[in-house]
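Reading a protein record of the kind used here takes little practice once its layout is understood. The fold follows as a row of integers, each naming the local backbone shape at the matching residue. With these conventions in mind, the following record can be read line by line:

_____
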Amino acid sequence: MNKTLKEVSHNRIRAALAEAEGAAARFPKLVSVRMSPGGYFAAAAVFTFASLILLRTHRDLAALIGIAFTWITMPLLIASDRLNFDGQRLWRSGPLVFFSRLLFRPPQRLKIDEIERVDVLSLRTVRRGGNVRYRYRVELSGAGQSFVFASGGRNFRRLIGHLFPLLPNYKMDARARELRDHLVENPVLSEEVERLHVAPVSVLEATSEGLRSREQRSTEKHHGQDSTEEIERAAQLRKVGNDLRIAGRLRESAEAFRRALLVSAQDGSLIYEYSRLLRSQASAFGDARLLSRARAALRLAIMRGGGDPRLLELIGESFLEFGEPPRAARAFRSALDLDDALFRSRLGLAEVGLAEGKLAHVIHHYNEAVRIAPDKATKRLAQREADYYVRLNNDDDYLTAELRRLNWLDGADRVQRLAGRITFAALLVALVGPSIDSVVAGLGWALASSSIVAWASALVIKRLLTPRRRAAVSDF
């Protein structure tokens, strides 16, 4: 019996290895990036805390083994968990993928035409003067799979440069399109800034409003002398302004946009891009006045570029980001009046209906999105959403179960955030406590232990509750 089990195990390992080698031979890698390491860091935090508990209870050897195992194994797992791209498909490789194949799980692969949507989240990591350091988190989803990776290093830029130009606009949100068009190497960007004589931050901070006003009057005075050259320079400044914004150099980006607007003040697309910059500045500096200016710029962009349906679609998505569903709905409807086949406008109107609690509108717009979907992947996405909301609308039991799931998910998220803060505070008390009183240290360790258990439990609950509940046969 044992011999048979060993043979089965060896056969599984050989099959997994053969499949991995065959995949590598069929799909030569064009570029490879690290997968998002969030799960590994969470596991490392739990194992490290467990090792500290062992150390406190005088199990020094076990604690040493636990610490060494955690901080030797986790970096290796993080470094080896890769997302690969060969020009036609994406696939994941690494030890976890290998072990999942031993359990007969399907390989994690995704063809380009199977990608349903691309979502990008930007996080500020450093703010220094007029510059912000952004970290971009990219999620590619389709065919029941999802790949998440974050910015950092040349391979990220290479993957964006190879993959995103192959994807149509209707699968990407605004940030994804901006990454595709304006993510450039810092040396190249610096050369462009120097060539166009965009002033550095130190100069911009020292420039008075009077000098800027005089420059504006001088530019307006000579504007008609060489309009072709000025328009070309404005286009170059516009591109560099967007490149600088994606790079986090917001003050220099504002200066580039200011100079471009002196020449092309009637360009609705330029005003829309300027509103995106104002939004970035408002978020980075916590300035509500800049956020109001960003909204005003979006309204002006509608007035100046109202004849472009794709611009109206982008403006509607921005209004959704700003938390203004009514204005977003008007922009989406105006875009559809000009072009009824705009897929993302239908998705946007469905999101507006969801924000307003109008399930019938949500279902209608998703069904319309199914009708006009440009390919199979987007049709599958719209059909899945339409079916989901139809079940919510028609089945009270299913609606109750989903509301319960969402409430539990929201509660688990709040518990996780609170438990994380309490854990750090309790660890500080536990480490400082021995210098005050052993009772204080004991309370700190007890509170830290309880909160880390709550944090890990909430994380597991979130992973279990994130997928939507599948409808049973009786639900139809």
About this structure: Residues 11 and 399 are 46 Å apart (CA to CA). The first helix runs from residue 2 to 26.
